Amino acid sequence: MIWLFDSLKKSFSSYTSNPVGFALNSLFLVFYQVLVLLAIAGLWFVVFFIASILQIGVDSIPFLAIDALLIVMFVYFSAGIKGSYVWACNESVEGRRVSMLEFFRYFMRKSGVFFFITLLKYFFTALFVAPVILAYLYVLVDYDVPYLDVLVYLTAALLAFLIHFMFYPAIISAAVYDTSISRSIRGGFQLVRKRNILALMLYVVYAITWILNFIPLIQLFTLFVTYPIIYSAMILMFKDAVPKEMLERKVQKEVKKK
Fold first, then answer.
1. What is the largest CA-CA distance in the chain?
2. Least packed by Cβ within 10 Å: which of 67, 118, 172, 183?
3. How far does the chain reach from its first CA to its final CA, in angstroms?
4. Which tens digits make up the pLDDT trace of 15-25?
């Protein structure tokens, strides 16, 4: 338990010593997310306009394929922006301030790594959650069991939460240590193995903060105060549990075995 409070204490101390730097990180996060959303929406309207001229229906295969491509582009850049935010928080924890241009350059350079980690997260979420939902819709729905639907959806939500919890340290590893996809995932599992309950408790606090982010006015406090503190605490816990030297030693051992 001491590691949890120690991480939060150090994170709060870092935030209070440089609140402007952390607030700017959150501002960059929102700015670039909105910018990417507007760019994708603009591309969609351009495609829609061209499709209308060519009399191609919105339910046609070419149009749906373009829709899918635009969604992938949005997820790609959104993952990179989130990773860049984690990196910027780590820079702030270390006493350095990130400019808007540095934020942009980082997520453009590292979006691929964060995107593939995000894809793996969604893949395993679908792999474990989809069977639960499908079993209910096509089999269990015929059984007259009180609150069965609530139980099923709560189970699906819990599975999704646990899978996301397993992957969030990998994003931190990639942002903090600039590790590859495989090494980031390895570092993430190291944190879960060493700080399992404490890391889970901290992720629960993050999840609550994420939910509060959808409430108007309250989201200003969560975005510019709670978010940076929680992310910084997760970064500090990860760096304490999984030093960069540990990942490098593991890679060297694997190379020697080969």
1. 64
2. 67
3. 39
4. 999 899 999 99
